[in-house]
Amino acid sequence: MQFPAAMWHRLSQSIPLVVLCAASALVAQGAPKKKSAPIQPAASGAKPARLKLTPEQQRGLRLLDTARSEAPSLQPDMHAFVLWQASYGYRKIDPAKADALLKDAFRMTLSVDKVRERCTASEAELCGARHWLQKQILEDMITKSKKIDDIQHLLSSAEPEVRQMVMENLFQRYVREKVFDRARTLLTEMADENGYFSYSGAVEIMDALPRARSQDRLEIFSEALQAYEQHANEKYPTSDDLATMVLRVWHDLPPSFVLFAVDKIFDRAKVADAGQETTRVGVSSDHGDAYFPSIYRFRLYQLTPILEQLDPARAESLLHDNSEVKVALEQQPQILESGETQSDTGRRHGILDIGTVDTAQAAAEEAQHELSRRQRRILDEAEKEPKQALSDALGLPLSTGSEPDYSPRAYTLSSIAAIAVTRNPAVSRSALAEIRKIADGMPARFQSEILSELPEIYLRLGEEEEAADSLNELVKLAARLYSHDSDANDPNQAFKGMWPSANLWRLCVAVATKVFPTRAEEIIQNIPDPEIRAFERITFANSLMGAGLSRLSIIEKHKTGVTVSIGL
Question: How far apart are CA 62 and CA 102, in angstroms?
């Protein structure tokens, strides 16, 4: 099944079982970054020293050059990490050097020891620094490098699980650049390597193809049908299945193709229901829930609106025999009938979940969905009525039973504070004050998450003293997190670049550089770990260069288990 979106995506693993837990989701309105002086692009053959850089940028460039020269003295994982991070600072002034650093960083990962010999794509980030670094570096290359052929060459050297994870990104780039033949080839390779067909990928190509290439659309849809027939285990509704593909592309296909696909989906649903027990299937959105006691009835709910267009008589007959579906369509018009994918409707209508839910978990799922709907309504309200949104947010629960480290109230207040900076500064200040009250007395990890946005928001409010104060709080929290990460009796076994303490120091350095550069240097100097200091010097240099702060995964590996979350 799919889990509700969350401000911080978490993965908890307790020994020996892995428990996947995702929650939260607020559309965090990130504070706009302070603009640095424009950087002139490097002319062909020009040296960085001749570029028109500000004094801060010149200093940042010197720091990056020093870090590059010192990187070989580090262990292979930290060496690769430093080169990768340094590429961010060079990106605007010397893209070729940035690309070269990414390639060097990837090659260095080949010298990093493997933590596991066997690993699955879904667990790649838990498989050690080698897998994680390769994934991050290749994703950056796919996004930023101009020479796409270099990427394919390196991809062949990557760990198999990493290839599976990044092939979709490369596929999307091919589609964006309209390299359709390569995209189609990669779609097939992805299916062969991953063991399943990417219906959403097929939709991307079909949407991007010129109108005149209707034959290509038919061929791609035929490949999707063939894949569906070959994978009999594709029984349960997901956001990337044949049914969601049909909903998206049926207008562009001959009716006979569409009706054939609908019949296949209905037939499989009936087979799946024959061995199904205590399962509810459906979708939840901002407009409400539509759950059914069988897969077949949910498929009717999904696809009958198409039948009403292509075969009205059959649609009427099916609804006559399935009154529950008919009532659901009348009371809550099917939000997927517009032909949008899960991700599209998630943005427009706030879909929380599509899939199967064990009946025993239904009440908890519904409560979570309703809580998420309340949060989104409050954030929508904050755009027009910040004061009322603040009042409503204070009525949200402080925590949830399923996720003790997640506070719906705190994260909603954080988003309201960001939204209200220009609309109603007083509301923003009040929200920030409430967040600090909530954080007081909480564990350091929890505090670091909910307080991480405060310095930026205070800066946007023009309150440098409060920004400095909240920054100092985060610096102290980073030191506390490091004590836990480096505990001799139970040290964090994850790569240091992924430690909670390293990531929080990273945020502190980036924020301090904007207004308190001297403070940024002090923060780095007081970090007790030499490897983390090397990492944070790169953060300082990149910030001086005006490079953005990328989000990294945070991982803790202790005796009690493993936790993973998206970086600050």
Answer: 19
